[in-house]
């Protein structure tokens, strides 16, 4: 891990292993800074106190970077704790097994540039160095009782990672390989100072090292056997010592001389049959200045004194700077700057270090346990005492948290009540990380590559052969925007929502006085009459959330759009103006995004309709349609054409048209952004108008598809053939032929409007009292899978129309939530009233 000094040489690389041999034909300069890197199989870090124990041992052994095997933390992510940064990669199924991680000191954590959780056995951490970077691959190999296929899969995943790394970078591959290389030099990659005899897994490890030109460092340093072994076999007894070397640290062959010493520390204690392997390296690290997004505590505005101070300062700052005569973009930029200045002055969060339940007494007992490691009886007694003290400390922490819940409850502070409940129940999520693969399944490592992959994905997702925008004449047909409309929109605006690219929180609108409201009215009317949208309003910012655990490809993530709150305020007014005309166009069997109806009414309608059919022995042939990214596939030109037919004001139409034809977006990745992408189709995510626009779009699809079709189920003399909640649609008929006719028309019309039915996720079901077989449904020549049950709007529906399964499922979910909150419910520090509120909020809500 030597750092290279840019120093000229003869241009001929010295032999491998000679002082300073590098691919860049430079010489290694011995540096004074010494960095200690280790790897340790700790058997688990999921037990209370184990992480503190690991950090205690790190500090004692002066380790800067410690790789962890068998971490047993599910998921993948990072967290700060005790002046250390922890990165981890675990299972996707929430099981506490396997897992790898790396713990870094605060100083070393500042050098981290990238983290890729490959699997529950492999992870990559990249650090900035001078003049080349450092890659650390932490590995936990399957044990000897596992199948060979798992070993091949492990080495294949490491191969894929190493192929992506730069050859000139320093690369460390370390961890528990569960392989014995044995004593004696066998090649330039395995040294003479190994331990024991080689096994077949050791042969595979040597082949791996030769393939990637790695040197197994702990076989190249002469040490006594006690400083070579890394694992004590379960058969190890005082009279029968069985100790092995199965943990290794490997480095690129050209950088082997960067390691000045390496040995194990059998005196370290964390209740593991492995011992830490630690190497000293000459390193020159480069401290990064990460682009950290500043956070603000907007809840301070709930304090009346703070609120008045902020309001006075804000009004004073924007006085005389807001104008309607200047360019609107310039005027809004003054407004944005004033908001930013006020946030920096008044709303920065208080720096509060989170209190840890760990006590000095427990840490001292851990040190005492380490010192009596060779005296089993005393060791066991100290361990029992540590466990008792940990239980007491954790119980005390729970009591303090419950008292805080009561305190926030007494102040009607719902935000902090919910936050503390999550702390008590252990539901606080660590910062999530995930790996990314491209369309060909190749692992993406660098940030630039990740941004390029996401940019290409967004371009593909929102690309369309859109026609040129047709001009809309904004004839004045009604009143302009009134100040009272703005006041009502501000009153209805929700607080605590993420700000858009302009970084203006919605809370600031409620600080405006009469003069500023007049200014805002003039600005809104100027935009409304001209149809010219400010530049900052046309740019959205996407963030990503995984749809499921273990998300890998871009399609496994949900892109959430953040847009200007000032734009949302403006569009809220437009929405109120067009809502009535648009709502009149939508049929009553659409339950999504409408006033006074929702999922309960949709599910009730399905339940009643199908039950009535069963009562009169009428078979129901139902197709549960799944559209492929329906909201992202809306054609803009057809949407505008539909809006014209509703008869809305031309000024509203022009605003919507200009908004959609000129919009762009970027995607935010760790406070960096991709290049701008033109959005050529789809409704705007997070926009006030999107629900009503999509409902209108969907309504015209079904109206056009099903006109003049007499198929469905008769209800009071009328044929009903579909129920919809936004894009979640059930189409049904009383015969399979009727359903096939309906689906053919819906499929063809949907394609004309740019929507594609996902035939893999679309399902077919028959609700009948008698068994019916030999019936198939096809969409676009693809046979639709017939299912006996299906989850629609979160509720299980089945062919037998038996609700007992759904009832059991809901009780099971409620039991899980109840059990997860047992710490709060059994606490004597929470009042019965608070416990009942928590019960209704977190448990009854899932029934």
The gross shape turns out to be: globular
Strand order of the largest sheet: 14-15-1-2-5-4-3-16
Instruction: Round the Cα radius of gyration to an integer and report it.
Output: 32 Å
Number of strands: 34
Describe the biggest sheet?
8 strands, mixed
Indicate the percent of residues in helices. 25-40%
- Give the DSSP E fraction (strand runs of 2 or more residues): 15-25%
Mean pLDDT: 87
- Quickly count the helices: 21
Strand and helix layout:
Layout: E1 34-41, H1 50-61, E2 65-69, E3 76-81, E4 84-89, E5 100-105, H2 106-109, E6 112-117, E7 122-127, E8 134-140, H3 148-164, E9 170-176, H4 200-211, E10 214-216, E11 231-232, E12 243-244, E13 247-252, E14 259-264, E15 277-282, H5 304-318, H6 328-346, H7 360-371, H8 376-410, H9 414-425, E16 431-432, E17 436-437, E18 443-444, H10 447-461, H11 483-492, H12 514-530, E19 539-546, E20 557-562, H13 565-583, H14 599-615, E21 620-625, H15 636-646, H16 650-661, E22 664-669, E23 672-673, E24 677-678, H17 690-706, E25 713-715, E26 718-720, E27 722-725, E28 728-733, H18 736-752, E29 763-767, E30 778-779, E31 782-783, E32 785-786, E33 789-792, E34 795-798, H19 804-820, H20 822-825, H21 832-843
Parallel strand pairs: 1-2, 8-9, 19-22, 29-32
Antiparallel strand pairs: 1-15, 2-5, 3-4, 3-16, 4-5, 6-7, 7-8, 9-13, 10-13, 11-12, 14-15, 17-18, 19-20, 21-28, 21-29, 22-23, 22-24, 25-26, 27-28, 30-31, 33-34
Helix pairs in contact: 5-6, 7-8, 8-9, 11-13, 15-16, 15-17, 17-18
How would you portray this structure in words?
This protein is an alpha+beta fold and 847 residues long. The protein folds into five domains: 34-282, Endonuclease/exonuclease/phosphatase (Deoxyribonuclease I, Chain A, 4-Layer Sandwich); 298-346, no CATH class; 360-431; 452-798, no CATH class; 804-846, no CATH class. Helix content is 36%, strand content 18%. It has 21 helices and 34 strands. Strands 14-15-1-2-5-4-3-16 form an eight-stranded mixed beta sheet. Strands 6-7-8-9-13-10 form a six-stranded mixed beta sheet, covered by helices on one side. It is globular, with a radius of gyration of 32 Å. The model is unreliable at 1-32 (pLDDT under 50).
